UniProtKB/TrEMBL annotation:
Belongs to the peptidase S1 family. The keyword Hydrolase applies. Residues 1-25 form the signal peptide. The keyword Hydrolase applies. Residues 134-187 form the Peptidase S1A alpha-lytic prodomain domain. Keywords: Disulfide bond, Hydrolase, Protease, Serine protease, Signal, Zymogen. This is Serine protease. Gene3D superfamilies: 3.30.300.50, Trypsin-like serine proteases.
Protein backbone atom coordinates (compact mmCIF):
# COMPACT_ATOMS: atom_id res chain seq x y z
CA UNK A 1 0.00 0.00 0.00
CA UNK A 2 2.87 2.33 0.71
CA UNK A 3 4.67 4.35 -1.90
CA UNK A 4 7.90 4.41 0.11
CA UNK A 5 9.60 1.03 -0.11
CA UNK A 6 10.64 -0.67 3.09
CA UNK A 7 14.28 -1.58 3.57
CA UNK A 8 15.52 -5.16 3.74
CA UNK A 9 15.89 -4.72 7.51
CA UNK A 10 12.21 -3.91 7.83
CA UNK A 11 11.23 -6.91 5.77
CA UNK A 12 13.35 -9.05 8.07
CA UNK A 13 11.56 -7.51 11.02
CA UNK A 14 8.23 -8.52 9.54
CA UNK A 15 9.41 -12.10 9.28
CA UNK A 16 10.51 -12.06 12.90
CA UNK A 17 7.19 -10.62 14.02
CA UNK A 18 5.21 -13.10 11.97
CA UNK A 19 2.90 -10.46 10.52
CA UNK A 20 1.48 -9.22 13.85
CA UNK A 21 0.36 -6.09 12.23
CA UNK A 22 -1.16 -2.73 12.72
CA UNK A 23 -0.56 0.72 11.26
CA UNK A 24 -0.18 0.77 7.56
CA UNK A 25 0.62 2.70 4.51
CA UNK A 26 0.53 6.21 5.84
CA UNK A 27 2.47 5.41 8.96
CA UNK A 28 5.16 7.84 9.99
CA UNK A 29 6.71 5.44 12.50
CA UNK A 30 6.56 2.34 14.61
CA UNK A 31 8.30 1.59 17.87
CA UNK A 32 9.98 -0.65 20.31
CA UNK A 33 8.03 -2.96 22.57
CA UNK A 34 7.56 -1.88 26.09
CA UNK A 35 5.33 -2.99 28.88
CA UNK A 36 2.03 -1.12 28.75
CA UNK A 37 3.05 1.30 31.47
CA UNK A 38 6.81 1.61 31.14
CA UNK A 39 10.02 1.88 29.23
CA UNK A 40 11.75 -1.03 27.58
CA UNK A 41 14.32 -2.71 29.75
CA UNK A 42 17.16 -2.29 27.26
CA UNK A 43 17.97 1.04 25.61
CA UNK A 44 19.14 -0.63 22.43
CA UNK A 45 21.90 -2.47 20.69
CA UNK A 46 25.38 -1.32 21.58
CA UNK A 47 26.71 -2.64 18.27
CA UNK A 48 24.33 -0.48 16.22
CA UNK A 49 23.89 2.95 17.86
CA UNK A 50 21.28 4.13 15.35
CA UNK A 51 19.92 3.49 11.92
CA UNK A 52 21.38 5.17 8.86
CA UNK A 53 18.42 7.56 8.70
CA UNK A 54 19.06 9.03 12.15
CA UNK A 55 22.77 9.44 11.47
CA UNK A 56 22.19 11.22 8.16
CA UNK A 57 19.61 13.59 9.65
CA UNK A 58 21.82 14.39 12.65
CA UNK A 59 24.72 15.23 10.37
CA UNK A 60 22.52 17.53 8.30
CA UNK A 61 20.61 19.29 11.10
CA UNK A 62 23.15 19.31 13.95
CA UNK A 63 26.26 19.96 11.85
CA UNK A 64 28.03 16.77 12.94
CA UNK A 65 30.34 14.36 11.17
CA UNK A 66 29.28 10.74 11.05
CA UNK A 67 31.74 9.82 13.82
CA UNK A 68 30.48 12.70 15.96
CA UNK A 69 26.87 11.61 15.45
CA UNK A 70 27.70 8.02 16.39
CA UNK A 71 29.64 9.16 19.46
CA UNK A 72 26.83 11.45 20.57
CA UNK A 73 24.21 8.72 20.28
CA UNK A 74 26.39 6.37 22.34
CA UNK A 75 26.94 9.06 24.99
CA UNK A 76 23.23 9.91 25.08
CA UNK A 77 22.35 6.25 25.51
CA UNK A 78 24.73 6.03 28.48
CA UNK A 79 23.27 9.23 29.97
CA UNK A 80 19.70 7.99 29.59
CA UNK A 81 20.58 4.74 31.38
CA UNK A 82 22.43 6.62 34.15
CA UNK A 83 19.78 9.28 34.76
CA UNK A 84 17.31 7.26 36.91
CA UNK A 85 20.20 5.87 38.97
CA UNK A 86 21.61 9.28 39.90
CA UNK A 87 18.12 10.52 40.78
CA UNK A 88 17.84 7.73 43.32
CA UNK A 89 21.35 8.33 44.64
CA UNK A 90 20.74 12.07 45.08
CA UNK A 91 17.51 11.59 46.99
CA UNK A 92 16.04 14.81 48.35
CA UNK A 93 19.08 16.77 47.15
CA UNK A 94 18.27 16.12 43.48
CA UNK A 95 17.87 19.41 41.60
CA UNK A 96 17.65 18.25 37.99
CA UNK A 97 19.80 16.63 35.31
CA UNK A 98 20.62 17.09 31.65
CA UNK A 99 22.90 15.83 28.89
CA UNK A 100 25.86 18.17 28.23
CA UNK A 101 26.55 17.74 24.51
CA UNK A 102 29.88 19.59 24.68
CA UNK A 103 31.21 17.23 27.37
CA UNK A 104 29.31 14.16 26.22
CA UNK A 105 28.06 13.27 29.69
CA UNK A 106 25.18 13.66 32.11
CA UNK A 107 25.24 16.64 34.46
CA UNK A 108 23.38 16.43 37.78
CA UNK A 109 22.41 19.46 39.89
CA UNK A 110 22.52 18.92 43.67
CA UNK A 111 21.58 21.14 46.58
CA UNK A 112 24.31 22.04 49.10
CA UNK A 113 22.96 19.63 51.70
CA UNK A 114 23.66 16.55 49.55
CA UNK A 115 25.53 13.92 51.57
CA UNK A 116 29.20 13.76 50.44
CA UNK A 117 28.85 10.03 49.91
CA UNK A 118 25.98 10.53 47.48
CA UNK A 119 27.96 13.06 45.45
CA UNK A 120 30.91 10.66 45.28
CA UNK A 121 28.66 7.83 44.09
CA UNK A 122 27.16 10.02 41.35
CA UNK A 123 30.53 11.24 40.12
CA UNK A 124 32.01 7.73 40.25
CA UNK A 125 29.16 6.57 38.01
CA UNK A 126 30.32 9.00 35.32
CA UNK A 127 28.12 12.06 35.85
CA UNK A 128 29.30 15.61 36.47
CA UNK A 129 27.76 17.47 39.42
CA UNK A 130 26.74 21.07 39.94
CA UNK A 131 25.40 22.90 42.99
CA UNK A 132 21.90 24.39 42.80
CA UNK A 133 19.78 26.46 45.19
CA UNK A 134 16.45 24.70 44.67
CA UNK A 135 15.52 21.03 44.51
CA UNK A 136 13.68 19.59 41.53
CA UNK A 137 10.71 18.99 43.81
CA UNK A 138 10.62 22.69 44.77
CA UNK A 139 10.78 23.80 41.14
CA UNK A 140 8.10 21.31 40.13
CA UNK A 141 5.89 22.74 42.89
CA UNK A 142 6.37 26.24 41.49
CA UNK A 143 5.41 25.04 38.02
CA UNK A 144 2.34 23.29 39.46
CA UNK A 145 1.23 26.61 40.97
CA UNK A 146 1.55 28.25 37.57
CA UNK A 147 -0.48 25.42 36.00
CA UNK A 148 -3.40 26.50 38.17
CA UNK A 149 -3.30 30.11 36.93
CA UNK A 150 -5.40 31.25 33.95
CA UNK A 151 -2.93 32.18 31.21
CA UNK A 152 -3.53 34.81 28.51
CA UNK A 153 -2.62 34.04 24.90
CA UNK A 154 0.51 36.19 25.15
CA UNK A 155 2.03 33.66 27.56
CA UNK A 156 3.11 30.76 25.34
CA UNK A 157 4.21 28.31 28.05
CA UNK A 158 6.33 27.54 31.10
CA UNK A 159 8.72 24.81 32.22
CA UNK A 160 11.39 23.93 34.77
CA UNK A 161 14.91 24.65 33.50
CA UNK A 162 17.32 22.48 35.50
CA UNK A 163 20.38 24.15 33.97
CA UNK A 164 19.32 27.53 35.39
CA UNK A 165 17.55 26.26 38.52
CA UNK A 166 14.40 28.21 37.78
CA UNK A 167 10.97 28.03 36.16
CA UNK A 168 11.06 29.74 32.75
CA UNK A 169 7.94 31.57 31.55
CA UNK A 170 7.86 32.27 27.80
CA UNK A 171 6.12 35.48 26.74
CA UNK A 172 5.46 36.49 23.13
CA UNK A 173 7.49 39.64 22.49
CA UNK A 174 4.68 41.74 21.01
CA UNK A 175 2.44 40.96 23.99
CA UNK A 176 4.94 41.56 26.79
CA UNK A 177 3.36 44.89 27.80
CA UNK A 178 -0.20 43.51 27.72
CA UNK A 179 -1.90 43.98 31.09
CA UNK A 180 -3.06 40.35 31.34
CA UNK A 181 0.44 39.11 30.53
CA UNK A 182 2.01 41.42 33.10
CA UNK A 183 -0.51 40.25 35.70
CA UNK A 184 0.30 36.58 34.98
CA UNK A 185 4.05 37.25 35.21
CA UNK A 186 3.60 39.09 38.50
CA UNK A 187 1.63 36.19 40.00
CA UNK A 188 4.17 33.73 38.61
CA UNK A 189 7.04 35.52 40.35
CA UNK A 190 5.13 35.31 43.62
CA UNK A 191 5.02 31.51 43.23
CA UNK A 192 8.81 31.09 43.45
CA UNK A 193 11.99 31.34 41.35
CA UNK A 194 10.79 32.41 37.89
CA UNK A 195 12.65 33.76 34.87
CA UNK A 196 10.76 35.42 32.00
CA UNK A 197 11.96 34.79 28.46
CA UNK A 198 10.77 36.57 25.32
CA UNK A 199 9.86 34.38 22.33
CA UNK A 200 9.02 35.46 18.81
CA UNK A 201 5.74 33.60 18.30
CA UNK A 202 2.99 31.67 20.07
CA UNK A 203 2.79 27.88 19.63
CA UNK A 204 0.17 26.25 17.42
CA UNK A 205 -0.78 22.71 16.60
CA UNK A 206 0.41 21.19 13.31
CA UNK A 207 -2.72 19.64 11.88
CA UNK A 208 -3.63 20.73 8.36
CA UNK A 209 -6.43 20.83 5.82
CA UNK A 210 -6.66 18.18 3.10
CA UNK A 211 -3.62 18.51 0.83
CA UNK A 212 -1.36 16.10 -1.05
CA UNK A 213 1.30 14.07 0.73
CA UNK A 214 1.54 10.81 2.62
CA UNK A 215 -0.72 11.33 5.65
CA UNK A 216 -3.71 9.99 7.42
CA UNK A 217 -6.95 11.93 7.44
CA UNK A 218 -9.85 12.39 9.79
CA UNK A 219 -12.51 14.55 8.17
CA UNK A 220 -10.64 17.38 6.45
CA UNK A 221 -7.73 17.28 8.92
CA UNK A 222 -4.39 15.79 7.90
CA UNK A 223 -1.94 14.46 10.50
CA UNK A 224 0.91 11.96 10.74
CA UNK A 225 0.96 8.51 12.32
CA UNK A 226 3.22 8.29 15.34
CA UNK A 227 4.23 4.86 16.65
CA UNK A 228 2.76 1.43 16.04
CA UNK A 229 1.12 -0.40 18.93
CA UNK A 230 -0.53 -3.80 19.00
CA UNK A 231 -3.93 -3.14 17.47
CA UNK A 232 -3.23 0.31 16.05
CA UNK A 233 -1.08 3.41 16.39
CA UNK A 234 -0.63 6.43 18.66
CA UNK A 235 -0.80 10.01 17.48
CA UNK A 236 -1.79 13.52 18.61
CA UNK A 237 -5.10 14.09 20.41
CA UNK A 238 -5.97 17.28 18.54
CA UNK A 239 -6.13 15.28 15.30
CA UNK A 240 -9.40 13.54 16.13
CA UNK A 241 -12.06 12.66 18.72
CA UNK A 242 -13.09 9.18 19.94
CA UNK A 243 -15.23 7.47 17.31
CA UNK A 244 -13.84 9.50 14.39
CA UNK A 245 -12.97 7.45 11.31
CA UNK A 246 -9.48 7.55 9.81
CA UNK A 247 -8.45 7.10 6.17
CA UNK A 248 -5.01 6.74 4.60
CA UNK A 249 -3.17 8.60 1.88
CA UNK A 250 -4.97 6.52 -0.76
CA UNK A 251 -8.40 7.28 0.69
CA UNK A 252 -8.99 3.78 2.03
CA UNK A 253 -10.37 3.25 5.52
CA UNK A 254 -7.73 2.62 8.24
CA UNK A 255 -9.67 2.50 11.50
CA UNK A 256 -11.17 4.56 14.31
CA UNK A 257 -10.01 6.84 17.13
CA UNK A 258 -10.48 4.75 20.28
CA UNK A 259 -9.21 7.33 22.76
CA UNK A 260 -8.22 11.00 22.52
CA UNK A 261 -7.42 13.87 24.88
CA UNK A 262 -6.93 17.55 23.96
CA UNK A 263 -6.34 20.04 25.50
CA UNK A 264 -4.84 19.23 28.95
CA UNK A 265 -3.10 16.36 27.11
CA UNK A 266 -2.37 15.88 23.42
CA UNK A 267 -2.49 12.16 22.77
CA UNK A 268 -4.71 9.60 21.06
CA UNK A 269 -4.72 6.08 19.74
CA UNK A 270 -6.35 4.65 16.64
CA UNK A 271 -7.35 1.02 16.12
CA UNK A 272 -6.63 -0.26 12.62
CA UNK A 273 -7.94 -2.96 10.32
CA UNK A 274 -9.15 -3.39 6.74
CA UNK A 275 -5.79 -4.75 5.61
CA UNK A 276 -3.66 -2.01 7.15
CA UNK A 277 -0.70 -3.20 9.20
CA UNK A 278 2.26 -1.87 11.16
CA UNK A 279 5.99 -2.46 11.24
CA UNK A 280 8.60 -1.41 13.86
CA UNK A 281 10.06 1.35 11.71
CA UNK A 282 10.21 5.12 11.36
CA UNK A 283 9.99 6.09 7.70
CA UNK A 284 12.56 8.25 5.97
CA UNK A 285 10.22 9.53 3.24
CA UNK A 286 12.98 9.10 0.66
CA UNK A 287 15.08 11.76 2.39
CA UNK A 288 16.94 9.27 4.60
CA UNK A 289 16.70 5.47 4.84
CA UNK A 290 13.93 3.95 6.93
CA UNK A 291 14.98 2.98 10.45
CA UNK A 292 14.07 0.45 13.07
CA UNK A 293 13.03 1.30 16.62
CA UNK A 294 14.16 -0.82 19.55
CA UNK A 295 12.67 0.83 22.64
CA UNK A 296 11.43 3.99 24.35
CA UNK A 297 14.06 4.97 26.94
CA UNK A 298 13.57 8.65 27.81
CA UNK A 299 16.31 11.00 26.55
CA UNK A 300 17.48 13.65 29.07
CA UNK A 301 17.41 17.38 28.36
CA UNK A 302 20.25 18.23 25.98
CA UNK A 303 20.00 14.99 23.99
CA UNK A 304 19.61 14.93 20.23
CA UNK A 305 16.19 14.09 18.86
CA UNK A 306 14.83 13.63 15.31
CA UNK A 307 11.31 13.90 13.95
CA UNK A 308 9.49 12.25 11.05
CA UNK A 309 6.29 13.75 9.65
CA UNK A 310 4.21 13.61 6.50
CA UNK A 311 4.82 17.24 5.50
CA UNK A 312 8.41 18.20 6.31
CA UNK A 313 9.75 14.64 6.62
CA UNK A 314 13.07 14.31 8.53
CA UNK A 315 14.56 16.95 10.81
CA UNK A 316 16.71 16.84 13.95
CA UNK A 317 17.53 19.07 16.93
CA UNK A 318 17.90 18.79 20.70
CA UNK A 319 15.64 18.30 23.72
CA UNK A 320 15.27 21.74 25.35
CA UNK A 321 12.93 21.03 28.28
CA UNK A 322 10.66 18.38 29.75
CA UNK A 323 7.31 18.65 31.51
CA UNK A 324 6.49 21.99 29.90
CA UNK A 325 3.01 23.48 29.97
CA UNK A 326 2.17 24.89 26.53
CA UNK A 327 -0.61 27.46 26.23
CA UNK A 328 -2.29 26.83 22.85
CA UNK A 329 -5.25 28.91 21.74
CA UNK A 330 -7.47 25.87 22.44
CA UNK A 331 -6.20 25.60 26.04
CA UNK A 332 -3.14 24.56 28.04
CA UNK A 333 -1.48 21.18 27.46
CA UNK A 334 0.72 19.76 30.24
CA UNK A 335 3.80 17.54 30.44
CA UNK A 336 5.06 18.17 26.91
CA UNK A 337 8.72 17.94 25.88
CA UNK A 338 10.20 20.95 24.10
CA UNK A 339 12.69 20.61 21.23
CA UNK A 340 14.59 22.74 18.73
CA UNK A 341 13.27 20.61 15.84
CA UNK A 342 11.13 22.34 13.21
CA UNK A 343 7.71 21.13 12.04
CA UNK A 344 4.93 22.23 9.72
CA UNK A 345 1.16 21.74 9.28
CA UNK A 346 0.39 18.08 8.69
CA UNK A 347 3.30 16.86 10.88
CA UNK A 348 1.07 16.62 13.98
CA UNK A 349 1.13 13.19 15.55
CA UNK A 350 4.40 12.18 13.85
CA UNK A 351 7.26 10.42 15.60
CA UNK A 352 10.14 11.83 17.66
CA UNK A 353 13.10 9.50 18.16
CA UNK A 354 16.54 9.64 19.80
CA UNK A 355 18.95 7.08 18.38
CA UNK A 356 16.73 4.00 18.19
CA UNK A 357 14.51 5.00 21.13
CA UNK A 358 10.96 6.33 20.60
CA UNK A 359 10.34 9.59 22.46
CA UNK A 360 6.90 10.94 21.58
CA UNK A 361 4.37 12.24 19.05
CA UNK A 362 4.38 15.74 17.59
CA UNK A 363 2.01 18.17 19.31
CA UNK A 364 2.73 21.68 18.02
CA UNK A 365 5.20 24.53 17.89
CA UNK A 366 6.07 27.74 16.13
CA UNK A 367 8.02 28.55 12.98
CA UNK A 368 8.66 26.24 10.02
CA UNK A 369 11.43 24.20 8.43
CA UNK A 370 12.56 27.03 6.17
CA UNK A 371 13.20 29.57 8.91
CA UNK A 372 13.44 27.31 11.98
CA UNK A 373 11.40 27.19 15.16
CA UNK A 374 10.62 25.06 18.20
CA UNK A 375 8.35 22.05 18.56
CA UNK A 376 6.76 20.10 21.44
CA UNK A 377 5.93 16.41 21.67
CA UNK A 378 3.73 14.31 23.96
CA UNK A 379 5.94 11.62 25.55
CA UNK A 380 5.07 8.18 24.16
CA UNK A 381 5.37 6.32 27.46
CA UNK A 382 2.61 8.45 28.95
CA UNK A 383 0.32 7.45 26.07
CA UNK A 384 1.10 3.77 26.58
CA UNK A 385 0.36 4.04 30.28
CA UNK A 386 -2.88 5.96 29.76
CA UNK A 387 -4.40 3.47 27.32
CA UNK A 388 -2.64 0.27 28.39
CA UNK A 389 -0.94 -0.13 25.01
CA UNK A 390 2.18 -2.03 23.98
CA UNK A 391 4.55 -0.75 21.29
CA UNK A 392 6.06 -2.82 18.53
CA UNK A 393 9.81 -3.23 18.50
CA UNK A 394 12.50 -4.86 16.41
CA UNK A 395 14.70 -7.15 18.50
CA UNK A 396 16.98 -8.61 15.83
Amino acid sequence: MRRTRLTHAVLAALLVLGGSGAAGAASAAATGATTPAGVTASPGSAAEPASEGVLIAMQRDLGLTRKQAEARIAAERAAAALDPKVRRAAGNAYAGSWFDAAKGRLTVALTPDVPPGARRVIEAAGAETRTAAHTARELDAVKARLDRLPAPSGVSGWHVDPTAGTVVVDVVGKDRSDNDVRRFVSRAREAGPVTVRTVSAAPRTFAAGTVGGDPYYTGNVRCSIGFSVYGGFVTAGHCGSPGAGVSGWDGSYIGTFQGSSFPDNDYAWVSVGSGWWTVPVVLGWGTVPDQLVRGSAVAPVGSSVCRSGSTSHWHCGTVLAINETVNYSQGAVHQLTKTSVCAEPGDSGGSFITGDQAQGVTSGGWGNCAGGGETWFQPVNEILSRYGLTLHTYTG
